[in-house]
Amino acid sequence: MSDNKVILNYDGNSYEYPIVDSTIGDRGIDISKLRDQTGLITLDLGYKNTGATLSEITYLDGDKGELFYRGYPIEQIAEKSNFTEVMYLLLHGDLPTQDQFNTFNGNIKKYNFVAEEMKKIIDAFPRSAHPMGVLSSLTSALTAFNPKAVNVNSKEEMDLAAELLIAKFAHLAAWTYRKTLGLPLNHGDNNLNYVENFYKMAFRQPNADFEINPVVVGALDKLLILHADHEQNCSTSTVRMVGSAHTGLFASVSAGISALWGPLHGGANQAVIEMLELIEKDGGDVNKWVEKAKDKNDSFRLMGFGHRVYKNFDPRAKIIKKAADDLLSALGIEDKALDIAMQLEKVALEDEYFIERKLYPNVDFYSGIIYRALGIPTEMFTVMFALGRLPGWIAQWKEMRIKGDPIGRPRQVYQGAQQRDYIDMVNR
Ligand code: CMC
Predict the structure, then answer these.
(1) What phi and psi values does residue 380 have, to the nearest 5 degrees?
(2) How confident is the model over 71-76, as a mean pLDDT?
(3) Catalytic activity annotated for this protein (predicted)?
(4) In this structure, which of 155, 158, 346, 357 has its CB flanked by the most CB atoms within 10 Å?
(5) Number of other CB atoms surrounding residue 192 within 10 Å
């Protein structure tokens, strides 16, 4: 290897592959000519070493435990910014001036309603339907009410599609929750900011006045910021992959919601609380559950622990842990689940198994405790994650389409049967 290329010696020949520079972090070997030149492809199950794109949105260093949105450290953003500003930052690349913020915020308010017909679609779901399934379906259904394909060469159309989806998504998230309780579906209130508006739409009771609790809204705002983007994770890669076929924005995001639902990804926040409740019911012996997580013959994993990229503390988990502590004391709530979570964290972080494998608490370990303190039911946790991740999905979709990434189409190493002849059923 030299500074700017990698040399591959194979089958008596030598091939050169250029190294693609980064501004910080991993550089990439451009192997796009590898197969044509050598007849070989790369095999990388789970894409552990594969860069799928060139991106300018989010950077994370898993060894140092660093996360930057458009260059700004997550700690500064979580402390000083707000979710609406973060949405603008991810979508447009820079922090907004006051005028830019007002225009963006004003546009979101302009589209702060959802067609009444959408309620009929929600009606068709049983109340027991998982909110993530409902949310994914509703997001896809939005296409029917906003049928115009986005012209990716027009900045105006791209911005409009993003603002429409952001405005309407808060309704869909709130409505999926109210559906599970059989509550009337509210429309938005333009006197409120984005997070307050969502909060009111989701939690207003039909028989009482609604008061915005700033402590609760502050905690929600922070959680949404922390979830807003995380570069090429499973759901974002799904959004980009679906969008790479020039599928529309809403349909691409709908696919991302399905990917996020899985317990190894966003669904982990629900799985963490279910795990903590199970441990509590079982007598609260955290050592027993840490042993189970280490046992290769037991399928149990410590949910909320480990991460594909972070091999150090997930910086979001640190911020969320403190926010959970602050929120519980501000609301005067004592939660046994938080005690168990802290004991689990302590035992696991001192255990050789977790140390060796560099398994630390991730973003989902403490977020469920905040959601629970806010009275949000467990099945809604991943919907909250989706609401936070939405601007990241849109920003990544937009970047992919503007840069003109080709359709995503991995190859495979085939290990199935060789060619064989069809046998009629009577002769099998
Ligand atoms: N509990 C026990 N062992 C674990 C855990 C865990 N939570 N996570 C990883 N390991 C072990 C795993 O068994 C393997 O051991 P060995 O080398 O002996 O076979 C080793 O650590 C490496 O794990 P891996 O599964 O190869 O790592 P991965 O990068 O493919 O998976 C992960 C990452 C997040 C899917 C995994 O750590 C996990 O399943 N964690 C629990 C689920 C979770 O909290 N997911 C949320 C992720 S963060 C938010 C998000 O992405 O949405």
Answers:
(1) -90, -10
(2) 98
(3) oxaloacetate + acetyl-CoA + H2O = citrate + CoA + H(+)
(4) 158
(5) 17
Contact 192, 206 (CB under 8 A): no
Report whether residue 200 contacts ligand 1, using a CB cutoff of 6 Å: no
| Cα–Cα distance measured from residue 89 to residue 145, given in angstroms and rounded to the nearest whole number | 27
Q: Which helix (H) or strand (E) holds 20?
A: strand 13-20
Mutational test site, ligand 1, from 300, 301, 318, max ligand atoms within 8 Å of CB = 301
Which residues are marked as active site? 307, 364
User: Residue 337: its pLDDT value, please?
Assistant: 86
Asked whether 140 and 121 are in contact (CB, 8 A), the reply is no
Q: Please name the residue whose Cα sits nearest to atom 20 of ligand 1.
A: 357
Residue 68 pairs with which residues in a beta bridge? 59, 73
**Predicted structure pTM score:** 0.92
pLDDT digits (tens, 9 = 90+) for 373-411: 888 888 899 999 999 999 999 999 999 999 999 999 999
Residue of 368, 299, 369 lying closest to 333 (CA atoms)? 369
Is 268 close to ligand 1, i.e. is its CB under 6 Å away? yes
Enumerate the H helices of 377-419 as residue ranges: 381-403
